[in-house]
Amino acid sequence: MSQSDLLSAETALREVSAGNLLLLDVRAPVEFEQGHIPGSLNIPILNDQEREQVGTAYKKQGSQVAIQLGHELVSGETKNQRINLWLAAVRASSVKVAITCFRGGLRSQTAQKWLCEAGRPLPRVGGGYKEMRRLCGQVLEDFGQRQNVFVLTGRTGSAKTVFLRNQKIVPAIDLEGLANHRGSSFGRRGSQPSQALFENRIAVQLINLDPNQPLLLEDESRMIGRSVIPETFFARLRAAPVLKLEIPLEQRARHIFAEYVQEPLASGQSVPAVFAELKEATQRIRKKLGDQRTDQILEKLRESEAQEIRWQNNQSWIEMLLEWYYDPMYHNSFMRRNPNLLVTGTPLEIADRLRTLREK
């Protein structure tokens, strides 16, 4: 293989960010789950059990024995099956494909050789996942020096994420979407990514953005569910000027009803399952709410569950939750931070200010 069969880790990340590259990750599934680059497809050359056997041989008998064992484990029909899976993935991809393993070493070199022999030469990523992961960390570290970062804030239910996603005025990164969590006790959306994958997702979105252009982020705590925003990145987010959405209570409560009740139901969850999650989330904040208010909200939730699922039948518990829990917590946090507040207003007023910032 020549040097031209190598793709640099930085080029790979930029191509993934642009949607032009699929990474064929041939590491074992257990490695892939611990962390990978978004835009990767895991089709291992050694499965978890085979990798463990090879690793044991390496520790006890050295690299030559381990390599020989690897070739014995993946030979004949097993080898053909894995090559065919790779070939199928390449044929199915609408973008370019590159091979990666952990360090860009023996596993990706072997996969590259076999695919070349099968008539589908592909580049492999120099340095592999390890180097791409290092570069992702550098991108996040460099974010601390980035100018023109702005934060969208507002009380719970202000539909900040909806505004962030729908506005096309300036580039934006949806951290809650990348963490697969709404950022609150009621914010669970299913499984969250590993910490490494969460950080890689942020970096891949950042890497191709013009550092001189404004960038909009949503106001977040350090932890979004169990995903932790990296320290340097979070410090920059907290220091950024703020644009504050101001939305009336009833409108915010309607947004919460849509997000906490209607969306889960539309996705196929049953009414008992949705309300069980809501009641469980309410119990998790009992210490902050106090027993009396917690019991009042739980009672309203039970009443709402027993009725037709309509906005009017859910308004009371949602407004209680906002006024008793979310709003005081937001107010206290906002006042402690004493941020540089650029504007407070409606979505239209925030959009107008973003256009002004873009044109500066």
Structure, explained:
- The chain is an alpha/beta fold and 360 residues long.
- It has 2 domains: 135 residues, Rhodanese-like domain (Oxidized Rhodanese, domain 1, 3-Layer(aba) Sandwich), CATH 3.40.250; 215 residues, Rossmann fold.
- Helix content is 57%, strand content 12%.
- It contains 17 helices and 12 strands.
- The strands form 4 sheets. The chain has a 5-stranded parallel sheet, with helices on both faces. Strands 3-2-4 form a 3-stranded parallel sheet, with helices on both faces.
- A hairpin with a 2-residue loop joins strand 9 and strand 10.
- Helix 12 packs across helix 16, helix 13 packs antiparallel against helix 15 and helix 15 crosses helix 16.
- The longest helix has 23 residues.
- The chain is globular.
- It starts with 5 loop residues before the first strand and ends with a helix.
- The model has no long low-confidence stretch (mean pLDDT 93).
How is the CATH topology of the largest domain named? Rossmann fold
Helix content: 55-70%
The proportion of strand residues reads 5-15%
Question: On the 0-100 scale, what is the average pLDDT?
Answer: 93
Task: Tell me the CATH architecture of the largest domain.
Answer: 3-Layer(aba) Sandwich
Q: What is the count of DSSP helices, taking H or I runs of 4+ residues?
A: 17
Estimated structural class: alpha/beta
How many domains make up the 3D coordinates?
2
